[in-house]
Structures
1.
Amino acid sequence: MFTNRARILVIGAFAIMLAVTINMHVYQIAAVIVMFIGLLIYGYFKEGTIILAAKSFHNKDYAKTESLLSQVANPNWLSKKRRGFYEFIMGGVCLQKQDFDAAERHYEIAAQYPLRTANDHVAALGHVVNISIRQGNYEKAKAYLQLADKYDDKINAKMKDVISKLHKELDKK
């Protein structure tokens, strides 16, 4: 739940404390400090800035969201749960920028990872279907719509309505 800059500052503070505790020969506390530094480094690679980006995405601050997501050095290193959120949120940012190809790609990747709820998973699939319909790729839209239909008993009424509308729109084509 740190930005990369905050992580560096906290690691710096821990490094100073580490130097002091080693100088004072208090090795037990030094070991705990090394453990905290390790946890911060682990968090950089496995957690990233996804939680902060999700909060700013929820508040519709897309520029801040994109800035926070750009701090993730390599999305492939994120844990499975965080990677799904990363791709889902990045798809939303690309959708806001009207970069539909990138949004479709991110939502396709997000659908491959576990998301918070079945509604989120179906939303990612629904976005892919919607973009595919808009781009005239009806076969792909049908395939992703079938994947979304598998979650019919696990999603709320709002998502069922969205899927129903996508079915109707696809039937018109």
Note: The two ends are 45 Å apart (CA to CA).
2.
Amino acid sequence: MEAFQVVLEDIKLQKCTHTACLGDVVGYNANPKECLDIVRNMGIPCVKGNHDEYCSGTTPLDGFNPAAAEAVNWTRQQLNEVDRQWLRDLKYVRMVTSFRSFTHTGWPRSAGDMCFDKLAAAASFTYQNTAVCFFGHTHVPVAFMRD
């Protein structure tokens, strides 16, 4: 929550005219309900992240590492049904204009697809149907361009 508040303040200081949420509204944080309420009330384009998917569902967490499973189960308990439904209703991809889209992992297939290198990017351009796509899962600034 503290980090999110710093980002929101920086958005104001930078005088940003447009914002979007690239997923993982909930997950490994101590204030999932509060973060979700802020994003929901902002009315901005928002896409579903992998944490949003797991925390809003009832999917068994077999195969998860124990810390991740504990975080998901704890987060599920912090959210009410309206919150979980809002997260479930998020799309993997949002088209905002004809040239710009948003997704969590980089490509409009599912919250689990990853794109961290040139090879994955090249294979995934088939799924990209806008000139620009913003994605957030990598946590690292990177740009891929198709010739």
Note: Strands lie at 93-97, 100-103, 132-135.
3.
Amino acid sequence: MKVRIDTCRPLIYRIGALKDKGVDATTEAAIAKLYVSESYVKSCLDAVQIFGGYGYMTEQQVERDLRDSVSSTLYSGTSEIQRNIIAKGLGL
């Protein structure tokens, strides 16, 4: 989980740096959205496994985080749409 967090942060900072320079960061933003949202889901699934049965209980925050992570892949633009944007940005 720590590795995912540490790899997500530079992606986000890179977009900010590009926007500060006035450069179009559409492809980079799609890459970041795709990677961060999928990393969030994987980290939440890891947390549920760590907590075991308690991870599914509604009293625990882990269950709620898992639901939120899955929905983040939808409301920020589905992963498939992000992949299409990335492919278009790469000229494929």
Note: The helical segments are 2-20, 26-51, 61-75, 79-89.
